[in-house]
Each structure stands twice: as structure tokens, then as C-alpha cells.
Amino acid sequence: MREHLINLGHVVSDAVWRVGFASRFFVMLIVYSGTALRRLHLTIREIYFSGVLSLLIIMVSGLFVGMVLGLQGYDTLERYGSSEALGVLVALSLVRELGPVVAALLFASRAGSAITAEIGLMKATEQLSAMEMMAVNPIARVVAPRFWAGVVSMPLLAALFSAMGIFGGYLVGVRLIGVDAGSFWSQMQASVDFREDILNGVIKSVVFGALISWIAVFEGYDAEPTAEGVSGATTRTVVTSSLVILAADFVLTAFMFRGT
Known about the structure:
single chain, mainly alpha, elongated
């Protein structure tokens, strides 16, 4: 029993230490962000790497998610004689929840893991140490541009995911099944509110982008300088980001829609 308590204490103390170190790392990241923002070409290059190269998986996934929503939603609404509200169902589902959440999960899997692997490999090959030897701060030069690139890219990717999802719902509902196009678009326009729906989805995507980018750069910077250490850090990025996204989505939804 005593041995189990000791092991539990080690696990808890290590977890608390990592949370404290990650928080301190985040503060340093914000402090040194000025250098990265002054050198915009670094951030723009990382936006291309994190955002533009993720467009294909985001748009294709959004299209098929919207098509599935169209099929499932029509089947459910048809039972209650409300098939004209299909556009509202698809739009609200995507803008409020599925767009930010699914896009964030895909972003964490594709871009987050790549960022962690890249920074971890730079640490394993002692490139970060070489920068410190040359009086170049690796947090300002390597970490901060990748962090802000993720914060900027995530809302744009989530918006494209939702747009492609709505288009997929339109293809299935209007073109394939035969729902009236005027009802599909007009009810969507009348029911989707900018502040309550679209803006809340944007806020979620910004928060998710910051969390994913923070976890990705921290895991890469904290990775053990070995092949096994880099692979473990990459795995932790995907797993931790996925859990944090789902937990943060619940918290944000509880605050945003508690009065509705």
C-alpha cells in the first residue's frame, strides 16, 4: 500500500511540475512574441506550413461531414414534417460545434504533430542549442512564429470547414434529395445569428488554435533529444490536444449558451 501511495505521489508531482513548466513556457512565449511579430516573414512561412498545407484535409472532411449531416438530418426532420429546416440544422450544427471541434481535431493531428516533430528534431540535432550559442533566442526564432501561425490559421480553417459542410449539406439536401432551395437558404439566413452562432464559433476556434499550438510547441521543446523521445512527444501532442479540445468545448459551450 505504501509503495502504491509513493508511486501515486510521484505521478501527481510530475504532472504538477509539467503544468508549472508549461505555464512558465507560455509566459516566456508571450514575452518573446514581439520579435516574431516584427519578423512577419517567419510567421507567414509557418502559416503556409500549418494552414495552407492543411486545406485539403479540412475541406474534404468538411464536405463529407456536411453530406452526412444532410442525409441524417433529412431523415430525422422528415418524420416531423420539417424537412425545409434542413439548412438550419446543417448550418447550426457546423457553425456552433462540428466546424470548430472537428477542424481543431484535424488541425491537431496534421499540423500540431508536425510542429512537435519539427521542434523535437531540431532539439535532437542540437540546432536549438546552436542558436543559443549564437545568442539567438530559440523561443523567439523558432517557437513563437509557429505558435502565432496556429492561432491565425485555426479560425480560417474552421470557417472553411463550416462553409464546405454547408455546401455538402446543400448538395445532398437540395440536389440529391430535392428539398426546396429557397427554403434551405432562407430559413438558414433567418435562423443563424451572427453574435450567438457565428461569433461564438470563431471564439471557440481561436481558443482551440491557441491551445493546440501551445501544446505542440511545448511538447516539441520539452521532448527528449532521441528518436523515441520525439515520437513520444508527437503522440502526446495529438492525445493531449484532442482531450483538451473536447474539455474546452464543453466549458466554452456552457458559458456561451447558458442564457439561451
